[in-house]
Amino acid sequence: GLPARVRIHEVGARDGLQNEKGTVPTEVKAEFIRRLAAAGLTTVEATSFVHPKWVPQLADAEALFPQLAGLDGVALPVLVPNQRGLDRALALGATRIAVFGSATETFASRNLNRTVAESLAMFEPVVARAKQEEAHVRGYLSMCFGDPWEGPVPVHQVVRVATALLDLGCDELSLGDTIGVATPGHVQALLAALNEAGVPTDRIGVHFHDTYGQALSNTLAALQHGVSTVDASAGGLGGCPYAKSATGNLATEDLVWMLDGLGIETGVDLAALTATSVWMAEQLGRPSPSRTVRALSHK
Ligand code: HMG
Ligand code: MG
Hints:
Layout: E1 7-10, H1 12-16, H2 26-38, E2 43-44, E3 47-48, H3 61-64, E4 78-79, H4 83-91, E5 96-102, H5 105-112, H6 116-132, E6 136-142, E7 146-147, E8 151-152, H7 155-167, E9 172-177, H8 184-196, E10 204-208, H9 215-224, E11 229-232, H10 252-262, H11 270-284, H12 291-297
Parallel strand pairs: 1-2, 1-11, 3-4, 4-5, 5-6, 6-9, 9-10, 10-11
Antiparallel strand pairs: 7-8
The structure holds 3-hydroxy-3-methylglutaryl-coenzyme A and magnesium ion.
């Protein structure tokens, strides 16, 4: 059956903003994150400690993260690809990090400048030290369904890298449909294969991009399988600079509209969240692509 409660892992400030052409001022990012927290989101991914030349839009991580210090009770995970990134994050007091691997060789090479095996080797000491420091570690896995260069990705290939990430010590796994090509049957097949390989559903989150309009259907398929951690981005912001044809994530508002209708608790105030996305759209100078944001803001 469906879960009674879903934890939304909000990625708008990271996955959303990493792909913006113009520079979003650090103060605007901090205000965005504060407003997301005020709307009831309890996990708000804040930024990435990656190479500033690879993702210039998040190069202000050192300036941004300390501005969030007053947000008690809100988990603020940050992306960390390697030891240098972990040093930077721990120096600022981060207590939740995420490493990010790829199920395909092409994307591992383009996103991390490593093979899949080399990227796992890069993460190994990161996860070990993070655990030593009692940080919570999420393991993202990209291209779980299809890859723009390699095409459809076999389920067994995804299972292999997913279990390798968990074996490193990651607390949770987030299954990324980086380019939004998944469909519900494929989602359920992957979840079943992961269970068969010994991965319990309660350690799995789902991360859908909405390129083909399937993100919400895929989410429902995952909920029916028992998944209760769902990644989404306020207003549907997003994309990945290193994956061609990656558009925005599942919009948090679209997700909350569905969950509210199903009677599934999220703790999120949809009106406050929509107002936040309308405000952010004004900052970015273009309307939110979320249907729910448009419907609720044109009443
Ligand atoms: P590299 O060029 O191989 O790095 O990049 P390197 O290890 O050879 O180091 C080269 C130089 O970079 C060194 O400096 C390092 O110190 C420096 P030098 O000694 O030459 O002066 N350096 C760093 N500086 C600051 N912070 C760091 C750092 N690391 C090295 N952390 C690297 C390898 C992993 C660094 C690079 O490929 C990178 O930063 N990639 C990040 C790409 C990224 O952020 N992509 C978007 C996030 S993933 C995503 O969006 C998908 C997701 O949403 C899920 C889904 O949708 O599927 C999560
Ligand atoms: Mg993503």
